[in-house]
Amino acid sequence: MKIEIKLSNDQIMAICKLLDLLEHLTPTTKPEDKLIRSIAFEVWDKFQTIKKKLVKSHDLFDSKKKKVTLKYYEAYGLLKIIRETIPLIYDQYNHAILCKLSNELDQKLS
After folding, report:
1. pTM
2. Distance CA 45, CA 32 (A)
3. Which of 11, 12, 90, 102 has the fewest CB atoms nearer than 10 Å to its CB?
C-alpha cells in the first residue's frame, strides 16, 4: 500500500532538517526504536534525493508542491519520528510545518 502526499519545498527542507537530527540521538536497545530508526534512514535517503534535485534545478523558490509517494511503513515511520522528535525543533516555523505534516500523515494513514 502506498501513500501519496504533496509537499511544499519548505516541508521537504523541514523534514530533511528533522531527519538530520537522528544522527545525534543516543543508541538504543529497544527493538521498536531500532525499527523506527532503520525506517527513518530509508526515508532520509529518499528526502535527501528530493532535496538535491530541488537545489540542482534551482526550484527552491517555486511554490508548486511536489508529489512524494511513500510506502505505508515509511509514512508510519515518518509520522512516529515527527511526533517523537518535534520537541527538539526550536524554530517555530519548522515546528508549525512539521505539526501540519504530522496531521496530514495521520489522516492519510487512518
Report:
1. 0.82
2. 20
3. 90
**Which cell numbers hold the place of 28?**
538504543
Per-residue tens of pLDDT for the chain, all 110 residues: 898 999 888 888 889 888 888 777 777 788 887 888 888 888 888 988 888 888 887 766 677 888 989 999 999 989 988 898 888 878 899 899 999 999 999 999 98
Domain hosting residue 41, numbered range: 2-109
Q: How many CA atoms lie within 13 A of 66 on its CB side?
A: 19
CB 43 within 8 A of CB 9: no
Instruction: Give alpha helix (H) positions in the chain.
Output: 9-20, 31-56, 72-85, 92-109
